[in-house]
Amino acid sequence: MVKLVSSEASTALLIKKLKLGDSAAAGKLYHQYAKAMFNILIRITNDHLVAEDLLQDSFVKAFNKIHTCNDASSFGAWLKRIVINCGLEHLRNKKIEFQSLEEELPIVDDRQELTSGLEDLHQKLYEINKAIQSLPTGTRNIVNLYLLEGYTHEEISNYLGISKSTSKTQYMRGKQLIKQKIMGS
Amino acid sequence: MKERDRFEDKIREIRTELDVFEAPVGKWKDIEKQVFKDSNISTGVNWWRIAASILLFVSVAMGYLLIQTNRGPNSLSDLSPAYQQLEMKYQREIDQTYANLQLDDIDTRHVQWLLEELTLIDSLQNEYLPDLLNESNQERVIMVLIDQYEKKLKILRKIELEINRQKNEEGITLS
User: Disulfide check for B64: which of A72, A151, B118, B135 has CB 3.0–4.6 Å away?
Assistant: First the structure.
């Protein structure tokens, strides 16, 4: 009995077809990843309309250079890098200032603090997003890249042209502010 | 050892749920237009790409050639009953698309090259199918066969696009 093709194998098949010019395969890939990529762009740009345009630009760019994606299993991560680059490049092109949180907030090591309300965080999705969106551009993107997209501070410092220590400091401040807003602590 | 941050852990746990906004409706059409009309990946099939695809099919088929004395399976459904429905679906869609094209009633000169590609795929498939179906790696065979159905459908859709484009240029109102 032939086993069913796994989702990774089906993504690999779609990529293979896309490389041969199959627009239906491209459409399926788009619909698989569009929502996640759109939300990344909203978080970077803080602007739905801009995020829509950048979503189009990102996918066009990705599909036009699909021949450079050699490992189908990492297609998602490959696409995400293109999307994030698009978003950050937009900010650079618009000369949006890298604003960061000033030093009025003392950094508190609260990693082990037993704060109530962590259990129902999944019910505060909009509040979390709103809290992230309320951060200054620079801090917001550091928080996005570190907390949500899994980048290291070293990678972030290279991406944003800042020092590693700035990335860490801004992240800690940003995280503290988010926690205060959503958990009232 | 680095201490765990509960807040970070929790946020990462619900990471996917934080994607609360739906992608804009209709954006795919704009992307498709840009990628497949203006760029290197094009639905206007190049001869070399068709030739490369057919060569790939021939290479795979020849690579799996086995000399058999017994009569083997003849189709996807013979290979695996689980795929009988899939093969019927493909064939239905191909037949329906052919019927919609109404090729007997129109001038097909501008799509002749695409029709020739379809004929070539059919003849190659007929020639190598018996040997391909006797290959032991059934999953790979099924993927190759599905790929051929997909290729045929893709070419038929391109024929449909070309015919509609021709009709628009001639000022014939589409129904």
Answer: B135
Q: CB-based contact (8 Å) between B41 and chain A?
A: yes
Q: How far lies A60's CA from each of A16, A54, B15, B77, B107, in Å?
A: 17, 10, 26, 38, 35
> Could you count the other beta carbons within 10 Å of the beta carbon of residue B98?
14
Show Cβ contacts of residue B132 under 8 Å, excluding neighbours closer than 6 positions: B60, B61, B64, B141, B144, B145
Of B3, B28, B82, Cβ closest to residue A112: B3
- At A17-43, the pLDDT tens digits run 998 888 999 999 999 999 999 999 999
Both tokens of B84, joined, read 């009988």
pLDDT, tens digit (0-9, with 9 covering 90-100), for B43-87: 444 555 566 667 666 666 665 554 444 555 666 666 666 677 778
What are the chain A neighbours of B83 within 8 Å (beta carbons)?
Answer: 2
Which pair of structure tokens corresponds to residue B63?
A: 């690579």
Complex ipTM, two decimals? 0.83
Q: How many CB atoms lie within 10 A of CB A28?
A: 18
Q: What is the pTM of this model?
A: 0.58
Instruction: Please name which of A49, A21, A122, A9 lies closest in space to residue B24, comparing C-alpha atoms.
Output: A49
Residue A119 and residue B174: Cα distance in Å, rounded? 59
**Is A13 within 8 Å of B143 when comparing Cβ atoms?**
yes
